[in-house]
Amino acid sequence: MMSSKLNVLPLVLMLFECSVLAATPLPDTTMRISMVVADITCQLNNGQGLSQQIAMPLVSLAELQAGQGRSAEAPLIVNCAGSSTQPQSILLSVQPAAGSSLMTDGSDGQLKTSKTGVGLQLTWKYNGLPVSLAEGDTVFLPAMSQGGVWNLGIVAKTIAVVGETASSGEYTGALTLRLRYS
Predict the structure, then answer these.
(1) Which residues contact 106 (CB under 8 A, 6 or more apart)?
(2) Virtual CA dihedral for 38, 139, 79, 13, nearest 10 degrees?
(3) Got the DSSP string for 104-125?
(4) Which residues pair with 109 in a beta bridge?
(5) Which of 9, 23, 29, 137 is the most buried (most CB within 10 A)?
(6) What is the pTM of this model?
(7) Residues in the chain, pLDDT under 70
(8) Which UniProt keywords are given for this protein, alphabetically ordered (predicted)?
């Protein structure tokens, strides 16, 4: 079982200061380094971690083909309020996991499921924009004014895959999320 707290490598901030006179070449320079080492510990989903299974509501083939898919939320609450040091930001990347693939280039948040003809449209709960699933894309989320709590839930809606014939049955879709504090 996943620990209820996520320990992150210490955050290191460095300030470099060099003293050099431009007109006179000097054989030596002075470099002073000062830094802060911080231990940021945040809870994910009230201590439940990232691993979760979301039950999507039933949708008929007729509804799916008519563009009337159903939605469900995958909660992702990052609570750093109890951490002695608050992160300045969160970096989050989302990619398809085993059994799922991209329907397009990934920037539109469309995920192909294990079932032919059935996909998921993924959007951020906080702003309704598509979740980019493109390789290398990362979402930068600056510090929030809500006491160190980020609500990064993802809304998944069933959609028909263009060019494929959907059939009834069970389907799965999976994501890999990478979360980093800075």
Answers:
(1) 95, 96, 132, 133, 134, 135, 137
(2) 10
(3) SSSTT-EEE-SSTTEEEEEEET
(4) none
(5) 137
(6) 0.76
(7) 1-26, 36, 38, 143-146
(8) Signal
